[in-house]
Design brief:
This protein is α/β, with parallel strands linked by helices. It contains 23 helices and 26 strands. The radius of gyration is 27 Å and the shape is globular. A six-stranded parallel sheet has the order 2-3-4-5-6-9. The chain has a six-stranded mixed sheet with strand order 11-16-15-14-12-13, with helices on both faces. It has a five-stranded mixed sheet with strand order 18-26-25-20-21. It has three domains: 328 residues, Alpha-Beta Barrel (TIM Barrel), CATH 3.20.20.300; 191 residues, Rossmann fold; 165 residues, Sandwich (Immunoglobulin-like), CATH 2.60.40. Bound molecules: beta-D-glucopyranose. The site of beta-D-glucopyranose has 7 residues, from loops.
Length: 766
């Protein structure tokens, strides 16, 4: 019996060793190990468990941190980190309690949702991904880290890399859309931006990749809902961005709220240990999402003591807010429900993160009040945010080249988002100073000076239904106008619009209509805003729709009726200036969608890289419905705007698609070249996209898969040859045995301006 056990242990050990050898996990630093060994020898069980506790900032007020409830816990060694406490001064104050008044003087981690910038707020993540510019995305994270670290923060709960194919889910705004290749690129760029090359520098912060895993696949697009999917889909379509973040060195991982294979993520040992650590070689620590341990009671996994033990045993190290670990693990240890080894393991991982951040050397490393004064919200950072925002706007329609506008005559600016400070930055702007935000009205005025006259009217509420308004704004005051009725608002707007030469309508979602707990079953522009649009159109003046949104919307009506639509998402602090840059043509728009816009909600989930079915519709042949093929009776399968779509003030053509060989051998590489020409009258950038299709596989393969892109700036009339490289590794996928392999056979390759509009060729993988 003993022998068999030993044998099995050896096999397991060897198995792990092999996986580890393949992974990028660096061997533990011996100095760090010695330091933490020494420290842990001194720690009591309570102090070890204390490290697992991550409370919210709660009742902490500067100067009173010692007397607050959390202050007391810190002194007793019952806190490992603090969530969302803002300002270097407060953080210094609280850190002081930890390192001067607790027995072992272990510094705290200070974590915050630094999601798309800090005080200088960048566009929401979904928008940032539409720039298709990884250097820009990395820079946004670098600036966020510089500002956050100057204000005391050393840990961010970002990047959020959940693949989302369902625009009903409001958190689609927090990620990079529907594509696994794009998601992986962005994940890498963000982690590099936050953590830099040396985590112990005082301007780099620990990143936390979230929400592990598959949170974006919540059923029905309803937040926190169940997910259930095959391993094949997980490995090929949902997991790679998390892995990319881990491979880029992300120091922590956040569990997701949803269950995976019937077990909530926070207690899912397969996820947190077998996959994350053993297969991927992750060596940081895992934190739960907000009260996710406690929520397992509602999931039906047992009482607080049981679910806390399940979490720890699965490999989840830190407990956000719920204090399940703090209040039950000691009892579980006594009762043999968890082991001291499991407690030590989690404690060590958290201490290691503190060590890597340099907090044991200098616990005040991130609390330099001079940095806070000089490095936050600087002109240079604001300039970067403005430039970034211009790159994220997606021009969806531009009939008769209505845009760009000339700065002359009378311009009517109408809409609930036209002069609204609080709705520019977008969801999850924890550290923003709204007073620094530039509204559309302000931005247009800054740009045109006295060259043109701007006539402003609000035109409508976000929504007229008081209950919906309350649901949207539950943390802020209601937004429905108390002085004017909807009709009065509209009449005022129409009167102004009738006097103008052109109308800019700033409409769409309020900032808090996307983000956490903002699922929608109707993804159109709210009815009252559409009524406003109709009234504006009826004036006969040209209408430009500036669309604010945190998710793909159903724009079927707008796309038919409004001559120009510029999707501006939520552009961060510099929204207004960036909009003016694009509207008046100083910057030519080049953003491309990273999530499909459906024709209507019934098509959801809709994504470009779907499988084919045995009865595909005759795409491209003009028939959108054929009996007994895979389609709908009432609408074609086509999206309204496909993945990768976005117009420019210029136009681009693709020609001369060439492959340097017809056969790709294992170990070889293939070069795909294409001539891209700016055929328009203005200079501009184009994102050239490369897709492949594996024609025959041991499992079915998507009809198209993004495998490369290049964003290139071309002068009007300029042509350039672009080269893309394809290697067998790019063609690999997880097969039924979950082995990552490329399979010989026929492939198609497509290059073009979006996922639906491409030119193609083919090759063979030998
Ligand atoms: C969210 C996380 C966030 C955490 C801390 C949760 O509700 O799901 O994304 O990081 O709160 O604020």
């Amino acid at each position: 019996m003993k022998r068999t056990l030993l044998f099995l242990t050896c096999i397991l050990f060897l198995g792990n060793a092999i996986v580890f050898a393949q992974s990028k996990a660096s061997p533990a630093d011996p100095k760090m190990k010695a330091f933490i060994d020494g420290l842990m020898k001194k720690m009591t069980i309570d102090e070890k468990i204390g490290q697992f506790n991550l409370p919210g900032a709660g009742d902490i007020v500067t100067g009173q941190s010692t007397s607050s409830d959390i202050g007391k816990k810190i002194k007793e060694g019952k806190v490992g980190a603090i969530l969302n406490l803002k300002s270097a001064e407060k953080i210094r104050d609280v850190q002081k309690v930890a390192v001067e008044e607790s027995r072992l003087k272990i510094p705290l981690l200070f974590g915050m949702d630094v999601i798309h910038g800090y005080q200088t707020t960048f566009p929401i993540p979904l928008a940032l991904s539409c720039s298709w510019d990884m250097a820009l995305i990395e820079k946004s994270a670098r600036i966020a880290a510089t500002e956050a670290s100057a204000d005391g923060i050393c840990w961010t709960f970002s990047p959020m890399v959940d693949i989302a194919r369902d625009p009903r889910w409001g958190r689609i705004a927090e990620g990079s859309g529907e594509d696994v290749y794009m998601g992986s690129q962005v994940a890498r760029a963000m982690v590099k931006g936050y953590q830099g090359s040396d985590l112990s520098r005082n301007n780099t912060i620990l990143s936390c990749v979230k929400h592990f895993a598959m949170y974006g696949a919540a059923e029905g697009g309803r937040d926190y809902n169940t997910t259930d999917m095959s391993r094949l889909r997980m490995y090929n379509e949902y997991l790679p961005p998390y892995k990319a973040a881990i491979d880029a060195g992300a120091g922590s991982v956040m569990t997701s709220f949803n269950e995976v294979d019937g077990i909530p993520a926070s207690a899912n040992k397969w996820l947190m240990t077998d996959l994350l650590r053993k297969q991927w070689g992750f060596n940081g620590f895992v934190v739960t999402d907000f009260t996710a341990i406690n929520e397992m009671i509602e999931h039906g996994m047992g009482d607080l003591q049981t679910v806390s033990a399940l979490g720890l045993k699965a490999g989840t190290d830190m407990d956000m807010v719920g204090e399940g670990y703090l209040t039950t693990l000691k009892k579980s240890l006594k009762e043999g429900k968890v082991t001291i080894a499991e407690i030590d393991r989690a404690c060590r991982r958290i201490l290691e993160a503190k060590y890597k951040l340099g907090l044991f050397d200098d616990p005040y490393r991130y609390c330099d009040l001079n940095r806070a004064k000089n490095e936050i919200g600087t002109d240079e950072n604001m300039k970067a945010a403005r430039e970034a925002a211009t790159q994220t706007f997606v021009l969806l329609k531009n009939e008769n080249q209505l845009l760009p506008l000339q700065a002359k005559g009378k311009i009517a600016l109408i809409g609930p988002l036209a002069d609204n400070l609080y709705n520019m930055a977008g969801m999850w702007s924890v550290a923003v100073d709204h007073n620094q935000s530039i509204t559309v009205l302000q931005g247009l005025k800054n740009a045109i000076g006295n060259q043109a006259e701007i006539l402003y009217a609000k035109g409508s509420n976000f929504v007229d239904d008081p209950q919906l308004d309350l649901n949207i704004n539950n943390t802020i005051i209601p937004t429905i106008d108390s002085l004017r009725t909807p009709q009065q608002l509209r009449d005022e707007a129409v009167a102004i619009a009738s006097k103008s030469d052109v109308i800019i309508a700033a409409l769409g979602e309020a900032a808090e209509m996307s983000g956490e707990c903002t699922s929608r079953t109707n993804i159109q522009i709210p009815e009252n805003q559409r009524e406003l649009l109709k009234a504006l159109l009826a004036t006969g003046k040209p209408v430009v729709l500036l669309l604010f949104t945190g998710r793909p919307l159903d724009l079927s009506w707008e796309s038919k009726n409004i001559p120009a639509i510029l999707n501006v998402w939520f552009g961060g602090t510099q929204t207004g200036n960036a909009i003016a840059d694009v509207v008046f043509g100083k910057v030519n728009p080049s953003g491309k969608l990273t999530a499909t816009f459906p024709q209507n909600i019934g098509q959801v989930p809709i994504y470009y890289n779907h499988k084919n079915t045995g009865r595909p519709i005759n795409a491209g042949k003009g028939d959108w419905f054929t009996k007994f093929l895979s389609n709908y009776l009432d609408v074609s399968n086509d999206p309204l705007y496909p993945f990768g779509f976005g117009l420019s003030y210029s136009s681009f053509s693709y020609s001369d698609l060439k492959l340097d060989k017809q056969k790709l051998t294992s170990g070889g590489k293939l070069t795909v070249s294409v001539t891209l020409t700016n055929t328009g009258k203005v200079d501009g950038a184009e994102v050239a996209q490369l897709y492949i299709r594996d024609m025959v596989g041991s499992i079915t393969r998507p009809v198209k898969e993004l495998k490369g892109f290049q964003k290139v700036f071309l002068k009007a009339g300029e042509s350039r040859t672009l080269n893309f490289t394809i290697t067998p590794a790019d063609l690999a996928f997880y097969n039924s045995d979950l082995q990552l392999k490329s399979e010989p056979g026929d492939f198609k390759v497509f290059v073009g301006t979006n996922s639906a509009d491409t030119i193609e060729s083919s090759f063979v993988l030998e």
